[in-house]
Design goal:
The protein contains 10 helices and 4 strands. By secondary structure, the chain is mainly α. The protein has one domain. β1 and β2 form a beta hairpin. The mean pLDDT is about 90.
Length: about 220
C-alpha cells in the first residue's frame, strides 16, 4: 500500500473528531461503570465455570489489534479444558468441545463479558470490528490495513448479523473453508460499512441493537 493510499484511508477512517477524540472517552464512560455493575455476574459465572469441571475460568487467545498490534482477548472458557489446542480456531454448532455450561454462556453472549477488561486496558472498544486471529487477517491483508486503523470492538454490525454464527457454520462440511470463503468476506464488508458510519449515534445504535438481539 502506498503512503498516499494509506493517508486517504486514514483520513476517511480515523481522522475525524469522534474516532480521534470521542471514541476512547465513550469506551471509558460506559465501560468502567459497566464493569462495576456487571462484576457480581462476572464473579458468579467464573465460579460456575470453575465448579463445572475444575478447569481454568478464563480463555485467552491472541488477536490482531489496532495498527496490527497483537493482544490477548479474554473470554470465559466455554470448551473442555485444553480442547482449544486440539482443533480449529473457529467453532460450529456441532463442536463437541463446547461444554454444557459453555453452550449456555455462548447462547447469551455471557462468555464475552471479560472483554470489558480489554476495553479498560485499551485493547478493544465497546463497538468496532470484531478482532480476528492473525492467520485470517493475513488472508485479507489489504482490507485489514483499513480495518485495523481503529481498535477492534466487542460488538458491531457483523456481530449482530452473525449472532448465531455457530449455526451458520454448522451447514458447511468444511467449517474453516466456509468461514474463509463466505462468512469472513461478508463480515469484512460489514466492518467497512461501520468504518464509514462510525459516530456516537452509530455506536449507541449498535449497543442497543446488540442488547435487543440477546434478550429477544
Amino acid at each position: 500500500m502506498s503512503s498516499k493510499t494509506w493517508l486517504i484511508l486514514h483520513k476517511r477512517t480515523v481522522d475525524r473528531f469522534y474516532p480521534k477524540f470521542g471514541k476512547r472517552l465513550f469506551d471509558l464512560v460506559f465501560g468502567v461503570p459497566g464493569l462495576f455493575v456487571l462484576f457480581p455476574f462476572i464473579l458468579a459465572i467464573g465460579i460456575i465455570v470453575k465448579l463445572a469441571d475444575g478447569g481454568q475460568v478464563f480463555f485467552r487467545h491472541q488477536r490482531m489489534g489496532k495498527d496490527f498490534r497483537k493482544f490477548y482477548l479474554y473470554k470465559f472458557r466455554t470448551m473442555a479444558p485444553e480442547s482449544e489446542k486440539k482443533g480449529l480456531q473457529i467453532t460450529s454448532g456441532e463442536d463437541k468441545r463446547i461444554t454444557p455450561v459453555g453452550r449456555f454462556l455462548r447462547k447469551y453472549k455471557l462468555d464475552e463479558l471479560p472483554q470489558l477488561f480489554n476495553v479498560i486496558k485499551g485493547d478493544l472498544s465497546l463497538v468496532g470490528p470484531r478482532p480476528e486471529v492473525e492467520k485470517y487477517v493475513n488472508l485479507f491483508l489489504e482490507d485489514y490495513r483499513e480495518i485495523l486503523l481503529v481498535r477492534p470492538g466487542i460488538t458491531d454490525f457483523a456481530a449482530i448479523e452473525y449472532r448465531n454464527e455457530e449455526k451458520v457454520l454448522a451447514k458447511y462440511s468444511n467449517v474453516e473453508e466456509g468461514y474463509i470463503k463466505e462468512v469472513l468476506p461478508h463480515k469484512i464488508k460489514l466492518y467497512q460499512i461501520y468504518l464509514e458510519q462510525m459516530s456516537l449515534t452509530t455506536d449507541l445504535k449498535i449497543i442497543f441493537q446488540t442488547l435487543w438481539s440477546i434478550v429477544k
